[in-house]
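Sample A.
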Amino acid sequence: MATQKMLKFVSTPREMPEKRPATERSEDFHEIYREFADAKAAEQASRCSQCGVPYCQSHCPLHNNIPDWLRLTAEGRLEEAYRVSQSTNTFPEICGRICPQDRLCEGNCVIEQSGHGTVTIGSIEKYITDTAWEMGWVKPAAPVMERAESVGIIGAGPGGLAAADMLRRQGFQVTVYDRYDRAGGLMTYGIPGFKLEKDVVMRRNQWLADGGVEFVLNCNVGEDISFDAIRGKHDAVLIATGVYKTRDLDIDNADAGGVVRAIDYLTASNKVDFGDEVPDYDDGELNARGKRVIVIGGGDTAMDCVRTAIRQGALSVKCLYRRDRANMPGSQREVQNAEEEGVEFVWMSAPGKFIGHVAGDFAANQEADVDGPVRTVMQIASVGIQKMRLGAPDVSGRQSPELIEGADYDEPADLVIKALGFEPEDLPKLWGVDGLEVTRWGTIKANFQTHQTSLPGVFAVGDIVRGASLVVWAIRDGREAAESIAGYLTGAARIAAE
C-alpha cells in the first residue's frame, strides 16, 4: 500500500512552495516562500523514489532519514514524520529554511539525476516541523533523571544549542554563555529575516530554556567572566563560539568611512527588525537607504547583504565577485532570488582600491591617532574595480582569478560592505588560556571524532574548529560532542586529551 503513495515523480512535476513576487517581498523582511498546504506537501513528498541507496541521506551532514519522513508525509502521518525528523536534527524547521539543499540533499536526489527534478526536501522538512509546533507535538526536554554533573557551553549558536539540547535530555545541568543579548548566534543576528524569521529562532531558545537550559547572556568570556572561572564552575566545557573576525582587504583607503563589515551591517539590520535602538543604523552608517551599495564577496553572507540592502531602499546594489557564476560558493538559489529583487552581479571583478573624499566640514573629518597626529578621515566615493579572468586551477581544483591589465575602472559607491568570509579570533590570547592548542589557521585543535581539545574536559565544535561553515555542520558537531561529553562525565568512555 505504501509504495502506491510513492514513486509519483513520473506523473507529478516538482513544485516549490509559491514564492512571493519580488516587488512585494523586497519591501519587507518576511520569508519569501509561502507555506505548503497539507495536500501539496503530501503530493510533493510522494515524488520520492524510495531508492535503495538514498544519496539525499548520505549527503546530509546529519544523515537525516529523509526517505522515511517523506513516505510518512505522503501517507498523512505527519506526527510520525516529525518524530523521525527530529530524532537526528535538533532544529529541522531551521535547516529546512536555510540549508543549501541544492548543494546537499536535493542536489544529490536520484530523480534529479534522472531529469525529473528533485524532491523539494527542504520545504517539506520545514512544513513538517512548523505543523508540529502548531499541533503542540514539540515538547521541551524532560529527562528521566537529573544528574549532578554540569556542562558550561560558550557560544549560543547552532553547535552550542544542539549540544545543550542533547545533554539536557540526559539530565545534565547545562549553562550557555553568550556575548549577545539573545541566544542563537548567527541564526539570530547574522541571517536576515527573509530567510529565517526571528520568531522561529526565539521559539527554539524558549524551548531550550523551558527544558532547563540556563542562559547567561551579554557575557563576554575574558571580560565579564574568565575561562578559568567557567572551567572551575563546570565538570566539562564546550567551546562553540563560531568565527566572527572579518577577513580584510589590503588596499588603499581600506578604513574609509562607509566601508563596513558584513557582520556589523547584518547585525544592525536584525536588531532593527527586533525593534531595538541601533544608533549606527539611525545615523546612516549601517543603513543602505538611498545609497549606491557595493558588496564584495560571493558567499551566502554576501547574498544576505545584497538582499538586505535592497529591502532597506538602496539606490542601487552591485555584488563584486572575482570568479564567475559557476564558481561562486554561495547558493545558486540565493543568487537567483537576489537577481529577481534587483541586485546586479559584476562577475570576474575585484576591488583594487577604495577612492575617498573629505565630506562636509574638513575640521569635522579630522581625528587623532593614538599617538597624537591628526589624520583626515576619508569617506568612500568609489571603488577602483579590477577585471579578472580565470587561469590555472589552485590547490583546491578551482580556477584561480588572474588580473587583466589595463581593464580597471571606477564604480561610484556610498556604502561598501565587506563579505569576504570570517576567521577565528585568537581565543587563547583573548581568554588568557595556557595549553589550548590551535591550528595554523587559528582554529581550535579538536579530535574529529570526540571533539576533545588539548585541555582535559574541554571540547570544541562548529566553526571555531572547522572554520566558517554551515549551520547543519555545527548541529552535527554539537550532537556528537554531547555524546562524548556524556561519556567523559559518566566514566563510560574516558577520553584522553589528544
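Sample B.
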Amino acid sequence: MTLLDKLVPRTLLVRTFLLVSLLIFVCVASWLTLYALAEREPRARQLAQLAVSVVNLTNAALVAADPDKRLNLLRDLAESEGVRLYPAEPTDRVKALPDTFFFRTMFETVRSELGPTTRFAGSVNGQRGIWVSFSIDDSDEDIYWLMLPGDHAKNDYPWHWLSWGSVSLALALLVAWLIVSRVTRPLRALVDAAREVGRGRHPEPISERGAVELQQLAEAFNRMSRDLKRIETERSGVLAGISHDLRTPLARLRLEAELSIHDGSARQAVIDDIEQLDTIIAQFLDYARGDSQEHAVLTDVNALVDQTIGAMSRSKPTAQITLGEVPASMIRPRALVRALVNLLENARKYGSEPIAVETRVDHGEVLIDFLDRGPGIPETEFERVKRPFTRLENARTDAGGTGLGLAIVERIARLHEGKLELLTRDGGGLIARLRLPLVLAAQNDPENKKASS
C-alpha cells in the first residue's frame, strides 16, 4: 500500500463528503474570482473618470483664478481633497505605476479624454500616489503633475460579505454532511448484515426505506437472506433424515456382522467399514449443521482444550499438550470442541507422532496449534485443502476421509471472526493453527447482547 493509498479515506461517507466539500469550495472560489474580474474593469474606469474630472476641474480653476490666488487654491485642494499639484521638472524622479490590467484600463480611459501625451506615475520625487500629467491651456510649456491619493486605487475588502459567505459555506457543508450520511447509513446497515450472513448467521431484515435504489437493494438482500435461511433449514432437515435412515441399517449390519460372521478378521473388517461410513455421515452432518445458533460465552480455552484432547487421548495415541497463559475469552464451546476434534483427527490420520497441541496469546489473538511430524502439505496447496470435499492427489498417507475436516474447522474459525492457518513445520511436518480473536467481555459480542436483552 502506497503513502497515497494510506492518506485517501477508505469510507464512502468521508470520500463523498470530501468530494462534495471540494465541489462547494471550487464553486465559491470560482464565484469570488469571477466577481473580482467583473468589478475590476468598472473600478478602473471609475478611477480614470475621477482623475479626468479632477484634472479638468483643476485646470479650469487655475485658468479662471487670479494668478495671485492660485497658491491659495492649490493649498485648499490639497487640504480638502488630498489633491496636490506640482510643476513638472526634467529632473523629477519618476517611478511608473504597476503594469496590471487595472492600471492599463485606467491609462487607456484617461488618455482617451486628456490626450495621448498624458503621463502616469506611481511616485514622483519619492512621494507615492497616483500621478497624472497635464498642461494648462493645452500648451507644451506649463506641464504639471497632479497627484491623487493612492487610496483611490485600493479595493476595501468586504469583510461583512466574507462573514456571511463563511456562514453560508458552513451551512452548505453541514447540509452536505447530512445528505451524505443519510445516503450511506443504509449502506452501513447492509454491510453489517452482509457480514453476519458471511459468518453463517441470520440477521434481522434491514429497513427498506430511503431512495428507490436503496429500497431495491435492501429488498433484494432481505430476500437473499430469507432464501439462504430456508435453504439451510431444508438442507439440515434432509441431511438429518438421511442420517437417521442410513444409521439404522448400519446398526443392523453391525449387529448382523458380529453375530453371523465367524471369521474374526473378516468380522472386524466389516465393522471397520461400517464405522467409517458412520464417521463420514457424522462429518456430513457437522459441516451442514453449522453453529450459527450457538451463543458465545466466556470460556476457559485452556480447560476446554485440555478436556477435549485428554478425552480423545485415552482411546488413541496421546497428544502432548502445552498450555500457555490464555485468559477466558468469548467462545462458542460446542463449535470449538468440534474444531479441536477435527484438527486432532487430521493430525492423527495424515501426520505421525509425536503430535503436540499448544495454546498461547499473540497480539490480542488466541492461538491453538496442532503440530505433527508427517509428510506435510505443499505451500501451494494450503488454501485448496481447506475447501469442502478436497483432498490432495498424493495424500500424506493412504488414509481415507471425506475432505471435510479442515473445511469444518475453517467455517468454525470464520464464525469466531478468526481463521485457520496451515504452516510448514521446521524439521518436517505440519502446523495447523487455529487463530481466534481474544474477546474478554460478554458485551463485546453482538449476539450475546441480544441474548441478554
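B remarks: The chain has a mean pLDDT of 78. The CA atoms of residues 97 and 310 lie 97 Å apart.
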